[in-house]
Amino acid sequence: MYSLDQRALKTTKFVIITLASTFISLFFVLFYLHHASTSDAFGLLTFDFTFSNNPALEEPVSDNSNIETHGELPEVDNYEYDVELVVASLSQQNTSWYLKYFPDWKSNIYIVDEAAAPLTVPQNKGNEAMVYLTYIIDRYDSLPNNTLFLHAERFQWHNDNPDYDGYPLLRDFQFNYLQEEGYVNLRCVWTIGCPVAIHPFEDEVISQQHQDQTTGEIYKQVFEELLPEHPIPNEVGVSCCAQFAVTKDVIRQRPKKDYMRFRDWLLNTPIQDGLSGRFFEYSWHSKSSSPPQSSS
């Protein structure tokens, strides 16, 4: 009797394990099939269980080849606004999705590592800051009502979207809100940058003790030089990652010579790009005459 019970127990365990393995395998097959189309742009699976109806996701952009989208894209009411896009790009990055999905907005694609590009910069320094400042200087007297400053690729980890997709961020952008605020960071998630990322005075002391430069020390040093009209904040919190929208009126709250001075500093500073660019990333709201500390 004991032997029969033991065999029955083993048989039951085998059946349970087999069923569980089959269920798990089926789940991952279905999961893979669903996500295979949206993972190509990353080169890996994005473990996200949110099922999106965004038709633009039917064929993600992963290179500069011609892209066909099946079906109609949702109507974008924002086309009625006077809008330009300013895009900081390297030559190998894909920016064709801006022209394809937002044809009624002028796309200013700056290619920073290609001197013969239609739009480029005096020198590839300071990450996207050199592009943004160059556009403002060159277009100061002919700015659109609304300008969005952006990175090149459609899929980026810092896009506030379950698929990290930049398309819905622009499609759903609320220009009425921008007109009220004047400046809007395109990232709402606080992770990285908020509520406080830099303590200029404390970070300076720590940096001196370790004999190396940090973002906090650089922030204090450069803030004093470039924004002397503002008191240095004790704390700085800004959502990353240097993608934002701003109105013409807010840009023009500063004279053109200020932006030229900012760019001259960027061209001549010995500070490495990672730090000089980071200073601008945490300071665009200050350059738009907003308070030095921000958590928006």
What can you see in these coordinates?
The chain has a domain at about 85-205 and about 215-280. The protein is about 40% helix and about 10% strand. Helix 3 (about 130-140) packs antiparallel against helix 9. It has helices at about 1-40, 95-100, 130-140, 165-170, 175-180, 200-210, 215-225, 250, 255-270, 275-280, 285; strands at about 85-90, 105-110, 145-150, 185, 245. It has a five-stranded mixed β-sheet with strand order 2-1-3-5-4, with helices on both faces. With about 300 residues, it is an alpha/beta fold.
Question: What is shown here, in short?
Answer:
It holds the Pfam family DUF3431. By secondary structure, the chain is α/β, with parallel strands linked by helices.
SSE order and pairing:
Layout: H1 2-39, E1 83-89, H2 96-101, E2 106-111, H3 128-139, E3 146-151, H4 166-171, H5 175-181, E4 183-185, H6 200-210, H7 215-226, E5 244-247, H8 248-251, H9 256-268, H10 273-281, H11 284-287
Helix pairs in contact: 3-9, 6-7, 7-10
